Structures are given as C-alpha cells and as structure tokens.
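Chain A, query sequence.
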Amino acid sequence: MEVGFFFWPFDPALVRRMAEAAERWGFDLIGVADTPGNAMDPWVAATMVAERTGRARIALCVTNLESRHPAATAAAAASLDLLAPGRVILGLGTGHSGTRNIGLGRTGMHDLASGAGFVRALLRGEKASWRGGEAHLPWVARPSPVFLSASGPRALAVAASHADGAFVNYGLRAENLARTGAALPDTVETWQIAALDCHADAAAARARVGAILAFMAAGYILRGDLAGRGVPAELHGAVAELRRRYSTRPGAADAALVDELGLFDYLAARFAIFGTPARCLAQMEAARAAGLRRVMFTVSLAADPAGTVELFGREVLPALRG
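Chain A, predicted structure.
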C-alpha cells in the first residue's frame, strides 16, 4: 500500500517538520494544500518540502484555475520539478476554501476539463490556448503529471478522460472503493483521500476529527444528489443541515455540529482513520481488505497535525508494510 498525507501549511516550522517526517518515516507522497484564507502560499511551502526531501513525491493537493492563471500554475509546477526532478504532481480542483475564502467562485466541469488539458499541454512543452490566449513554456524539463480532485460522477468522468491521476474523495468502505474504481481506468493513478488523526489519546483524536469530516463531507463530497453519493436515506436531512451550517474555516464548532446532527459514526466509518496507533492499524487493515491501495491523508485539523504524521509513521506504517 502507498501512503501519503497533505496539510495546510500554517507556518514554516510546521512545513519543515512535515517534510522531515515524510522523509524519515518513508511516506510515499506529501501534499501541500492551496488555501490562502487559512495558511501560507502553497508554492513557497512546496519549495521548502522539495529542499528537505529526496524520495517522496510532492503534490499540490490541490490548487485551482481561478486564483491563479493556469499558465502561471503550470510554470510553478515546472519550476518545482527543477528542484525535485520527477517528483512533482500538480493537483487541480474546482475550488473550495482556496477560492471561497478570497471571494472567488468555483470552476465548472467544462472549464476544469479544458483547463486540465491546457496545463498538461504546457507541461509537455507545447503551445496551448486558454480562454482566447496562447501560452508556451519551452523551458519545461519534463511533464509533471496532472491530477484532478474528484468525488462525484461528473468529476470522475473528467478525471478519467483529462488527467494523469485522481485524488478521490468518496470513502474507504468496499462499496465506495468499488464505485470509484469502476469510474476510473487503470491508466489514471488513483489516490483515495481520508482524514487522519492518530493520537495516543483516543479521546483527543475523536474530539477533533469531526471538524475535518464536516469540511470534507459538506464542502465537496456529499453535494448534489445524496442518494447518488451513497448516503442512506435516513441521513439526508442531517447531511443537508450540515451543508448549510459548516464552515470553510473549520474548528470546534464544526466538530460539535457533526455530533449534534448524529453524523459522526457514519462519516468517520466512511472517511476517516483515527484513534490510537493500534486502532489506526486495525482500520487500515480493514480498508486494505476492502480494496484500498493508495491513500492520501488530510491531517491539518488533527489534534496535533505533525504529531499525527510522526506517530502514524513510527508505529503504524512499519506494521502495515511488514
């Protein structure tokens, strides 16, 4: 199993510690989120990661087509590749906290598809056009892969036909993995997204993981047709209320909201690995038995984000791989 994590780069000290943990404990992929309303610039953070790692792949997980021109984003990815040759992944999505918190809208599926094609062409060193303008990056050394963030059927279809890989937010249960697996060809490298809070104090992990579950589920996974997103009918009302009240700057109020609406057990079983190292290992083994092959953990809202990565790397990864 391949295991990675991504995080909000709150400050340089955290970025350094995350990079060192990825290198020391053998994580396969380290991602930096683009969320300017919540954390520092992702390209600055990714550069710090590139300078402190030599093995793990580095992903922008994910940026968008609204807050920066996609040609500038392609140039940034190609520049990062010069520091970390062959290790860079550019993740693109429709926008969530990375756009909403600075007053921008989301990208539609048609524009996401065309934007991904534009960026992929630029990263191959080709001339390409976007919204009436032409761009060219003739100095690109090698084409970094472009991944799309996908959870619903339309986004999965775009990823299947317009991307090198996908970061899939749909769940870790067997039925979730089977559904997304059927939507993506083997040629599209697929990483499942899940929340992680590994902590010696199980209660501390339990108390904090609800905030990221609210952010993930209400923000971009459980949108639109809830039945089509695999949500049991008896939970539709609670999920609709969660979508109405959650925050793109999540915290304790969102964690309390998940409990108030009676959604914690359902969301945690579908979207999270949490608790003590022994419990995390048991949950990971169950997910592997269900078909999980690659997982990218979001750790930004864990009780101790860097501590979670270090504890999981020290006590869970060796057992999982052994």
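The chain has 13 helices and eleven strands. The chain has a mean pLDDT of 95.
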